[in-house]
Specification:
- The protein is an alpha+beta fold and about 120 residues long.
- It has two helices and ten strands.
- The strands form three sheets. It has a five-stranded mixed beta sheet with strand order 8-5-6-10-9, with no helix packed on it. Strands 1-2-3 form a three-stranded antiparallel beta sheet, with helices on one face. A two-stranded antiparallel ribbon has the order 4-7.
- A hairpin with a 5-residue loop joins strand 2 and strand 3.
- The termini are far apart.
């Protein structure tokens, strides 16, 4: 007996509606609804190991602005996204900060670093 799960593809701007058919032992039998190869890859990964990039902001003292946009250098497991953001809640940086500067290395053991998305000059 097979089971079908539905996803909305975020692999490209088309936003295809995907169907992943899985057999009784959990193996993907077929992916339907994708318009490009990214859709098929996305559906298979999303079905077994969903991951997301994380973008947020952290507090900065002495900078031109009070918040600095940051992002992960690679995708993290989807179920850890909120924990990654929570782990950055109490981070307080001091300007100046360079574009790409590592803010948190290997955040929560995911292998992804959190880096500055822009430079932050001194005010």
């Amino acid at each position: 007996m097979s089971e079908v799960t539905h996803y909305l593809c975020i692999g490209c701007p088309l936003g295809c509606r995907l169907e992943v058919e899985e057999d009784a032992v959990g193996s993907v039998v077929e992916v339907r609804g994708h318009s490009c190869r990214k859709g098929k890859t996305f559906a298979e990964r999303e079905h077994h190991d969903p991951r997301r990039m994380v973008t947020t902001t952290v507090a900065v003292e002495g900078g031109r602005w009070s918040r600095l946009p940051v992002h992960t250098t690679s995708e993290v497991p989807k179920d850890l996204v909120h924990e990654v953001v929570r782990s950055l809640r109490d981070v307080r940086l001091t300007a100046p900060i360079e574009l790409g500067q590592v803010i948190a290395a290997n955040v929560l053991g995911t292998g992804a670093d959190v880096v500055a998305s822009r430079p932050m000059p001194v005010d």
